[in-house]
Amino acid sequence: MDVMAESDAGASTIQERLQKRHQSRVEDAERRKEAKESHSVAEEKADYFFSTFKAERASIEELLASCSGADRAAVNPKLEEATAKILQLQKFLNDSMMFLTQYDLRQSQVAIQKLQTALADIREEYLPKKKFAFRARTKASDKACEPVSDTPPPGPDADTVIDGAAVASKQCGFSNMDNVSLTKTAEELHKQDVLLTHLTNCKVRLFGSPSTLHLKHIDGCEILCGPVSSSVFVDQCKSSTLALPCQQLRTHNTTDTQVYLHVTSRAIIEDCHGVSFAPFTWSYPTLDEDFTVSGLDQDRNNWNQVDDFNWLAAGTPSPNWTVIPEADRKTNWDP
Questions:
Q1: pTM over 0.70
Q2: Domain 137-328 class in CATH
C-alpha cells in the first residue's frame, strides 16, 4: 500500500509540473502575441500620423504660397485660415506623442516651427504693424512704467526669435524692466500673444487667458499666468519661478528654474539643467472661468511628463530636470 501511495504521489507531482509548464508556455505565447499586436497597432498609428501630418503640412504650405502676389484684402483670411490649421496640426502632434520616437517628435515640431515662421513673415509683409503702446501697471508704484514700444530697439534682439518663430515686438507684454511688480488684466490679455523679455528681479501677474506666452531673457523673476490656450515658449531663463497652465510648454537654455505647471500635452526641454517641476498651484477668483475661455482640460495635467531632447537614453531619467518635493512646493503666492 505504501509503495502504491508513493507511486501515485509521484505521478501527481509530475502531472502538476507538466501542467504548470504548459500553463507557463501558454502565458508566454499570449504575451508574445499581445506584444506583437501592440507593436503592429503602434506602427499603424505612426503610419497614419505621418501620412496625415504630411498632407496637412502640404495644405498649409500651399495656402501660404497662395498669398504671394495677392492683394491685402485677400491675404488676411488666408492667414487666419493658416493660423487655425497650424494650431490644429500642433494639437494633432500633441495627441500623437505617445507613439512617436523622440526623433520623429522633434522633426515634426521643427516642421511646425517653419510653418509658423513663414506665417509670421507673410503677416509682417502684408499686414504692417499698428502704432500703439501698452503701459505696465505696477504694485510697487502708482507711476506707469515705460511702455512697450512698437519700434524695436537697436541690437540683435530687435526682432525676437523664440523657438524658431519670429515674435513681433508689438505684442502685449513687458520688456527691459528691473525690480518692479507688473500686472495685466484679463481684458488686456484676452486671446493676445504675450511677450515678456529682458526682465530682472520682477514679479509678474498675468490674469486671464492669453493665446500664447513667450518668455525670453528672464532673470530672478516670479511669473504667474492664467491659462494659455496654446503654447508657452521659454528661452534664456534663469533663477526664476514660473506658474502657468497651457496646452504645450517648450523650454530652451534655462537653468535653476522652478515651474509650477498645468499642461495638457507633454512639456519639452532642450539645453536646460536644474529645472524642476510641480503641479500648478496659483489661484485667483476667476481662474475657473479663464480655464473655460482657454479651452484647456482642467482635469488633465501632465506636469511630470517631461521630454528632454538632450537626453534620449531609454529607461534612464534625464539629469536635467527633477520633481519638486511636496514639502518644498510653494502654495502661497501672495506678495
A1: no
A2: mainly beta
